[in-house]
Amino acid sequence: MKILVTGATGNVGRMVVDELLAHGATDVRALTVDPDRAALPPGVEVARGFLGRLTTLPAALEGVEKVFLAPHRETVFEACRLAAAAGVRHIVDMAGEKGGHWQVIEDGVEACGVPFTHLEPGEFMSNSVDWAAQIRAGDVVRDAFGDVVNAPIAHEDIAAVAARVLLSEDHEGRSYGLTGPEALTRRQKLAAIGEALGRDLAFVELTGEAAREHFTERMGEYGDWYLDGLAQLAEHPQAAVPTVAELTGRPAMRYVEWARRHANLFG
Fold first, then answer.
1. pTM, whole model, 2 decimals?
2. Is the pLDDT of residue 100 over 90?
3. How is residue 233 annotated by DSSP?
């Protein structure tokens, strides 16, 4: 069974490749614009290309039975139609909460008629790297909505779920919301990073226009979108769900463990 992993240079896609190999997959093809950067293991077939460059996809899809679909909103409908035409029989996509920014990914997948499984992770733990510059500069992080609660997930756990779903025949037509194992405030996340670094970090709350300017400076056009998402979380906190553990047979990674593993990003 040939499996195509798209976005194989990206954080999740690259880990999906490793997870597939660890669970015995022997026919993995990786779609990447930069094979050198992806540093793919021996035995992985490389297809040079990109979901946004549709002319690269027919060759990449040749002989493929299953696809891990990285999120690329702009060409998702066309890419999925090409997958259907190539005879792909299962697409496992990474999208997001239903009805949100990434809903178009699921829409494109379902429109092509190929059996699907939707993976719907919440916020990534790695989003906390936005604090790295401030943490390197001192012990104070200025940010907004310090008491907002959600259950962020590690890239490693998304990849682990994706691999198990790709290697199984039992998940077609399913949607899986994915979170980490615990719901935390942003202040608690910062404290966990401090614990990993052996430092006492302080969260300074920004509000109003100061918060909006801060996020726009950090995230450009996505600043307003991210800040508005935090405001929604203030009204509707995200609880942790056990899906990762149920699908992988092991606990999802705790935030403090993620911070310890990636302490170099903040030091």
1. 0.95
2. no
3. H
Dihedral sign for Cα atoms in the order 178, 106, 170, 28 = negative
CATH code given to domain 125-152+181-238+253-265: 3.90.25
* Contact assessment for residue 204 and residue 210, using Cβ atoms and an 8 Å cutoff: no
Any alpha helices (H) in 92-206, and if so which ranges?
Answer: 103-111, 132-137, 155-166, 186-197
CATH superfamily label, 3-121: NAD(P)-binding Rossmann-like Domain (3.40.50.720)
Task: Please answer whether residues 24 and 1 qualify as being in contact, where contact means their C-beta atoms are separated by less than 8 angstroms.
Answer: no
Q: In whole angstroms, give the CA distance from residue 255 to residue 136.
A: 19
Task: Determine contact, residues 166/172, Cβ cutoff 8 Å.
Answer: no
Eight-state DSSP code of residue 86: T
Q: Residue 158: pLDDT above 90?
A: yes
pLDDT at 197: 97
Q: Report the C-alpha gap between 42 and 40 in whole angstroms.
A: 7
d(CA 168, CA 179): 21
pLDDT value of residue 267: 84
Phi, psi dihedrals of residue 3, rounded to the nearest 5°? -115, 130
CA–CA separation, 67 vs 75, rounded Å? 15
**Mean pLDDT in residue range 129-136:** 96
Place of tokens 């990434």: 102
Q: What is residue 42's predicted lDDT score, i.e. its pLDDT?
A: 92
Measure the CA–CA gap between 177 and 90, rounded to whole angstroms: 19
* Comma-separated ranges of CATH 3.40.50.720 domains in the chain: 3-121
Task: Give CATH 3.90.25 domain extents, the chain.
Answer: 125-152+181-238+253-265
Integer Cα distance of 99 and 67 in angstroms: 23
Query: According to the model, what pLDDT value does residue 218 have?
Result: 86
- Hey, what's the torsion of the CAs at 1, 92, 60, 27, to 10 degrees? -30
